[in-house]
Amino acid sequence: MNNSNAEKQARVDLAAAFRLAVRFDLHEGICNHFTLRVPGTTDKYFLNPFGVHWSQVRASDLLIVDDNGEKVSGEGKIERTAAVLHGRVHSNLPHANCVLHTHMPHATALMCIDGGRLEHLTIAGLRFVNRVAYDDEFEGVALDWEEGDRVASKLGNNTVLMMSNHGVMVIGSTVGNAFDSLYFLERACQSQILAMSTGRPLKRIRDEVISHSGQQFKELEWLAEAHFLALKDVLDTEQPNYAD
């Protein structure tokens, strides 16, 4: 795939992720951000322009921004916290090709509980064995580059960061890989919150089964792309202008 085709496909995939986040209630207002490295570069990424509702984001709307938070191309504003958080995560973590940050409700609720942790209670939760890091200190709105560096250091080699009193950050090698994680993370948190709300003891999975399942899911990573392709097929039928 040449660079122009690769860039077009990257734009389409990221635009699809915005539309799908609305479909599954993973967004909050216009305050969250998704980014993806521009193919063939190491210091530029696509970013949603501030003020465009995610239900209306199109592939052509996406800005190109460099790791210093400067706009390279596109029409629209760069939201400061997006530049601070995503720019530093992209620049500090080579494996962070796609970075999704949301305040999705159940994952955020879990991180508003003192000592809140994702339990491996469901098949969805087992996807995240040894993949989750925690930031237990909310430091306010991310307006300074140092906060972006701090968040990147908390994330480290993991693919999920649970952010206390804030939300989540999920990274992946592709948009499909990252979005699949975001989707199932919220599902896992939703099931856990519902189970906790009953006040009954949680039925826990044995440690050896958790460990074994974590290894199994490493061999099933191809499912993420299949899931994302199926979701894009739905968009192609119902909201085809996302790819414009």
Can you tell me about this structure?
The chain has about 240 residues and is an alpha+beta fold. It has a single domain (about 5-235), classed as Class II aldolase/adducin N-terminal domain (L-fuculose-1-phosphate Aldolase, 3-Layer(aba) Sandwich). Helices cover about 45% and strands about 15% of the residues. It is built from eight helices and eight strands, in the order αββββαβααβαββααα. The protein has helices at about 5-25, 80-90, 105-110, 125, 145-155, 175-195, 205-220, 220-240; strands at about 35, 45, 65, 70-75, 100, 130-135, 160-165, 165-170. An eight-stranded mixed sheet has the order 4-3-2-1-5-8-7-6, with helices on both faces. β6 (about 130-135), α5 and β7 form a beta-alpha-beta unit. The longest helix has 23 residues, at about 175-195. The two termini are about 20 Å apart. About 40% of the residues are buried. The mean pLDDT is about 95.
Break the fold down into its secondary structure elements and pairings.
Elements: H1 3-23, E1 33-37, E2 44-47, E3 63-66, E4 71-73, H2 80-92, E5 98-102, H3 105-110, H4 123-126, E6 132-135, H5 145-155, E7 160-163, E8 167-172, H6 175-197, H7 207-218, H8 222-238
Identify the notable features of this structure and list them briefly.
single chain; alpha+beta; L-fuculose-1-phosphate Aldolase
